[in-house]
Amino acid sequence: MKIGPKFPAWLQTQNELNYLSLDDVGISDTLPQGFWNSSSSLSYLSLSQNQIQGQVPYYHSYSITYYLDLRFNNFVGQVPLLHSKFMKVLYLEENMFSGVVPENMGELLPNLLHLVLSSNFITGRIPPSIGILKSLEILALRNNSLSGELPPHWDDMQSLYFLDISDNNISGKLPSSMRFLGSLQWLSLGQNHLEGELPSFLRECTKLNLSFNNLSGKIPSGNQLQTLTDPSIYQGNPLLCGLLLSKKCLGDETDPRTTPNGSGNREDNNDGMEFGSLSFYISMVVGYIVGFWGVCGTLIVKTSWRQAYFRGFDNLKHRIVVFIMVKVAPLIRKIKFERN
Questions:
Q1: pLDDT tens-digit profile of 8-31?
Q2: Sheet strands (E) in the chain
Q3: Which of 43, 51, 76, 139 is 20 to 30 A from 118, comparing alpha carbons?
Q4: What are the residues whose beta carbons fall under 8 Å from the beta carbon of 206, sequence distance 6 or more?
Q5: How far is residue 89's CA from residue 124's CA, in Å, rounded to a whole number?
Q6: Which of 195, 198, 172, 171 minimizes the C-alpha distance to 187?
Q7: Beta partners for 76?
Q8: What is the mean pLDDT of each run of 10 residues along the chain (340 residues)?
Q9: What is d(CA 228, CA 245) in angstroms, rounded to the nearest whole number?
Q10: What pairing do the DSSP bridges indicate for beta strands 214-218 and 193-197?
């Protein structure tokens, strides 16, 4: 339902709203003057996928304590300095926010689950206080102008499973503490200036983008990385080597089908396969004759062996019955007793 392009006038008189969602309703207006002051009781605000303009106050006694979604609009100004121990979700993607990420964001929003600031004009570094967000699951800072090195401490971010900082100007090496990101599944670091060898923890990711950096060394193998067979996730790193790349590492095994001798030996290989198949069928026939008729023929000819053989089967059957009565029957009685 479209209610735009103007912001609804009737909403300006509502002072006791707790929940407000106006996603994709065609608003291309600016928010009314005093909107942020009048929303004193809001804990949930979602205005995504409109064309709303104007500036969001940098520092304000925001009452939005749980959920704030301003994605896909035309908001300007600095990243708002929110302060709420109850805030779970902050979505500011695809706007025109500028300035830096607040240095103490991790302290102001200690229980944040999702932080999405992608596709803005944010500069500066990723503040180290991000590393204290123990509950953070999604951190998306893609397509900004962030610079500097990655924060050194990721040890406490055990819940983080999505990390996207691609299309920035991040430099330096991947911090060794990132190996403690035990839940990490999606890692996108493309289009930066990262350097150094790839750490082994990357093998646990199911989605990976390392393209267009200055990374070096061998691509890790094993675990999840066996399914990441797209070479484009490593392109633009001329110092990387591995089986998926044109540049092979020293000691990498080569596919015999791609070697110069591969085509010349194809006929010999086919002859070997035909000979192997014939040997297999001959062995199967001989094994059937020796195994089946060797046992069954003996039982048919020798009466004493036949009697001993079936007597053994009878004894085994009795042992199984006794085991069931001793072990299983008491358990069944116990279950019936508990139900009654």
A1: 887 777 777 889 999 999 999 898
A2: 19-21, 44-46, 53-55, 67-69, 74-78, 89-91, 96-100, 114-116, 121-123, 138-140, 147-149, 162-164, 169-172, 186-188, 193-197, 207-209, 214-218, 239-241
A3: 43
A4: 185, 186, 224, 227, 228
A5: 22
A6: 198
A7: 55, 96
A8: 82 80 92 75 90 86 81 95 90 97 94 97 97 97 98 95 98 95 95 94 89 92 66 93 87 54 48 54 67 61 60 56 49 49
A9: 12
A10: parallel
pLDDT at 300: 64
The backbone torsions φ and ψ at residue 69, rounded to the nearest 5 degrees and listed phi first, read -130, 110
Domain ranges of the chain: 9-184, 302-340
Residue 308: its pLDDT value, please? 62
For the segment(s) 9-184, the CATH number from 2.60.120.260, 3.80.10.10, 3.40.50.720, 2.60.40.1120 is: 3.80.10.10
Residue 187 DSSP SS3: strand
3-state class (DSSP) for residue 72? coil
In this structure, the chain runs to a length of 340
Rounded Cα gap, residues 215 and 234, in angstroms: 9
**57-80 tens-digit pLDDT:** 887 666 677 899 999 999 999 999
Tell me the C-alpha distance between 241 and 248, whole Å. 5
Mapping DSSP to helix (H, G, I), strand (E, B) and coil, where does residue 302 land?
A: coil
The token pair that represents 65 in the structure block: 């304590």
